[in-house]
Amino acid sequence: ALNLQVSDKELGQKNRDEALRVVMSRWLPLADAILAMAAEELPSPVVAQKDRMIKLLSQEPPIESLRDQITALEEGLKRCEHDADTKVGFVSKMFASEGTTRDAPQRFIAFTRVFSGTLRVGDTIEVIGPRYDPSRPEAGHASTATIKGLHLLMGRDLLDVNSVPAGCVCGISGLEEHILKYSTLCSSRICRPLSFMSFQAQPIVRVALEPSNPLQQAELVQGLKLLNQADPCVETRIQDTGELVVVAAGEMHLERCLKDLRELFAKIEIHVSPPLVQFKETLAEPDAPRKAETTVSTTANQLGEFTMRAIPLPQKIKNYLSKTAEQLQTMHAKAVAGEGTSGQAAVLNGLQEAFQSSGDEWKQEWPKFWAMGPKHAGPNILLNHIEGFRQKPDWLPDSLVHDTPVPDGAVAHKIEALQTSILTGFQMSVNSGPLCEEPMEGVAFIIESIDIKGDDEEMEASIETYGPWSGQVIAAVKEGCRNAFLEGDRRLVEALFDCEVQCSADALGKAYPVLNRRRARIVEERMKEGTEIFVIEAKLPVVESFGLVDELRKQTSGAAQCQLVMAGWEMMDSDPFWEPSTEEELEDTDLSDIMNARGAARKCMDLVRKRKGLAVEEKLVEAAEKQRTRARRK
Questions:
Q1: Of the candidates 481, 492, 518, the residue with the CA atom closest to the CA atom of residue 608
Q2: 230 and 198 in contact (C-beta within 8 Å)?
Q3: Which of 86, 357, 360, 538 has its CB 3.0 to 4.6 Å from that of 499, i.e. a possible disulfide?
């Protein structure tokens, strides 16, 4: 009835599964079936672009002088017109073309979707960066380029074409000197930059690199630049110490990046350090409501005294700061460069709402807001509780603190002159916490009082001995923040993977011990419908994920498969410094579980401290006895 071309020999196979596979491949070939399903079920570019533009277009209202032009352009993008006068496209990533050498001028192809008009070879196009502002074109962040080639992406092959209309995806050559990772293309500089796509997996695994031959350092640096341009999810950095670091999304992604670096980009042999995993430091909510302990830090010359305390940041405020981190960083960069504060009001209004919705206590803290950190836009804040002193917010408008009194008196003016040093000390402390010099998250530091004891003559006299007064203030504030943090319920925050293990029933008992040894938390176990395969879903710490795939294969004789996807961050349950002290704790029946949890936090903290060359409390010899190396005299 189906008129299939199947021979008797193929139908008569003893393996009936193979015979069924032959029949299905003749009836519904996989490639044809997928193509037909995509053509029938997916909306056309004209229909899909209306929904797509809602996410890509900026939600901020355009400036009044260009409102009509920008509105007409953005409305035209939703219609996906191939004959539009203005040509618009978006480059989501750059990828290396095969068969080229490192010095080839057309090394990278820009993966582009055309939203409006028709791109043609030889067209002059404006490459618009993410920080471009149409109202201030003289500020830069845009360049003019010529399209040297257009390509249809046919699997691994590139098919040259002369033009690409709106609604199509293509590759563009000749833009590698203008685009690092992503950009907006437009034939006019009136266009605002389109929003960048977000990745589910964030780079978290770091390794340090060095060339096998020290004379090839320049080749490695150039190779890292090319790798950074070719992979939208990888990050490459040159640390202040000169160390070269690659940050990848996971173990497999890291292996692929290193392979490309060796074979395609740098083409040299490299030494790779053990994987380095980032942690964060935070404070946990106390079991019973209590006021945080205050700490006092003094400057080196004993003339300045800072009283501070640290408390956990409410979840709503922390989540909002984390969610808007990129926007806040962009706003900070614009404020520092003097490029205006477009969109600042909406973000700050949202932050104020987060304060007001976190309870009456935090509603009163909004006028006392002083700074965010680290990098002036992170999920930690500094609050001012100094009586009679009005703080100037770090880079935000003074309207945030319009309800506080104006500084009055000589002491208040002295404190006002120290604001830059105080904020620098705060930024340094939240960028490297006291547990293992990792960034802090979700901590609010409160400066209760500042006592300036000496006069100008005493301070001038102490500079020769103790250094500049501003440097002493920075060190005192940094130390005060770190000590206040240690007085709270300190915790480490670790990155987690969503781990999915698929295996047969026979291998199930061998897979669980592997996951348990790596502190995996089982979320769900189920059987795939219509098969005999079990699926185990778990949360796995990233620091414990290295070598998991190989160990699972080895323990289950290849019967288990594992997939890891970045899941986010989670606070570890126990204080890394916890020790049982009371009789109840010592007699607790679950003490072994508590010690195991505490041991995991302490192990992670010591692991990072050892890597950074910090002091570690450990016993080098647990139990030993003296070895006699000489014969006993009689």
A1: 492
A2: no
A3: 538
Distances (CA, A) of 457 to 75, 177, 234, 408, 461: 66, 57, 54, 22, 6
- Under a CB-based contact definition with an 8 Å cutoff, are residues 229 and 181 in contact? yes
- Beta strand pairing call for 244-248 and 295-298: unpaired
What is the share, in percent, of the chain residues with pLDDT greater than 90? 28
Residue carrying the six token digits 């293309």? 185
Q: How far apart are the first and last CA of the chain?
A: 104
CB 441 within 8 A of CB 373: no
Which residues touch 261 (CB under 8 Å, ≥6 apart)? 209, 223, 224, 227, 246, 270
The 8-class DSSP code of residue 139 comes to G
Q: Which residue has the tokens 């007409």?
A: 72
φ/ψ of 171, rounded to 5, equals: -115, 140
Beta partners for residue 440, in sequence order: 281
Task: Locate 203 and state its tokens.
Answer: 């780079």
* pLDDT value of residue 105: 44
- At residue 305, φ and ψ (nearest 5 deg) are -130, 125
Residue 401 has pLDDT above 60, yes or no: no
Mean pLDDT to the nearest integer, 273-289: 85
Instruction: Residue 53: count other Cβ atoms within 10 Å of its Cβ.
Output: 17
Report pTM.
0.74
- Give residue 459's pLDDT band: very low, low, confident or very high (50, 70, 90): confident
Residue 341 and residue 331 in contact, taking contact as beta carbons nearer than 8 Å? yes
Residue 498, exposed/middle/buried by CB under 10 A (0-12, 13-18, 19+)? middle
**466: closest CA among 517, 114, 267, 458?**
458
Q: 67-79 and 45-56 are packed helices; what angle lies between their axes, rounded to 10 degrees?
A: 140
Q: Are the beta carbons of 142 and 189 closer than 8 angstroms? A: yes
* Token digits of residue 168: 């199509």
